[in-house]
């Protein structure tokens, strides 16, 4: 598994409400976008990502990914949701904050996704682009209610699969055909490709925070 990402705040914005991270040994990549029209989105997104990575780093075998060790993406999304709710109970000034979630977890023969909100995941395989994340999960947000209902996807895994996790600052500005072209031309340095995707969103007139996180499976 190889990963790289890039993020940039929207034009004229003083802070970025997108956050992403990954843990290669755990086989986990995650991206979060502070829910629009809610306060303290940068806090919510950062807490969601940090919570997930802290759990997956500490709960996988030395020779096994988190998913292979029995991890469940649904439960992980719920734990991130609980972390946001607990934070707002302790910090009342952050009440009302929320976040999307795009979570990718891998095992030797499978890939599992948990999606909350409108941050989609794309998979490029053999020249075909598949978009995941347009179901009921798009109407959910972490930190909104006691239980979150993520949209779940279980996929087979093939060597060379290339996944894109992105915020709506990318998906709303860059059409699927352009994303496919950019992903087909992905360089060995995935961070550089992620930067090109974000710059394409800017050139297309995207005004929101824009983030792209790429994961290539070996």
From TrEMBL:
It comes from the Bacteria. It holds the Pfam family PP2C_2. SMART domains: PP2C_SIG (SM00331). Residues 2-217 form the PPM-type phosphatase domain. This is Protein phosphatase. It comes from Alkalispirillum mobile. The lineage of its organism: Bacteria, Pseudomonadati, Pseudomonadota, Gammaproteobacteria, Chromatiales.
């Amino acid at each position: 598994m190889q990963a790289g990402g890039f993020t940039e705040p929207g034009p004229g914005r003083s802070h970025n409400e997108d956050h992403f991270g990954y843990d290669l040994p755990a086989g986990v990549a995650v991206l979060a976008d502070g829910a629009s029209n809610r306060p303290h989105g940068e806090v919510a997104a950062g807490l969601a990502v940090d919570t997930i990575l802290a759990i997956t780093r500490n709960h996988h075998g030395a020779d096994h990914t988190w998913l292979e060790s029995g991890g469940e993406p649904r439960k992980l999304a719920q734990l991130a949701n609980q972390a946001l709710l607990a934070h707002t109970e302790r910090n009342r000034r952050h009440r009302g904050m929320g976040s999307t979630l795009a979570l990718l977890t891998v095992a030797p023969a499978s890939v599992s996704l948990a999606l909350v909100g409108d941050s989609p995941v794309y998979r490029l395989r053999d020249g075909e682009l598949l978009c995941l994340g347009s179901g009921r999960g798009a109407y959910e947000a972490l930190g909104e209610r006691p239980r979150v209902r993520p949209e779940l996807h279980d996929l087979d895994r093939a060597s060379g699969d290339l996944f894109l996790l992105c915020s709506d600052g990318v998906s709303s500005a860059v059409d699927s055909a352009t994303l496919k072209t950019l992903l087909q031309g992905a360089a060995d340095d995935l961070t550089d490709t992620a930067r090109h995707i974000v710059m394409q969103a800017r050139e297309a007139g995207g005004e929101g925070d824009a983030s792209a996180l790429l994961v290539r499976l070996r």
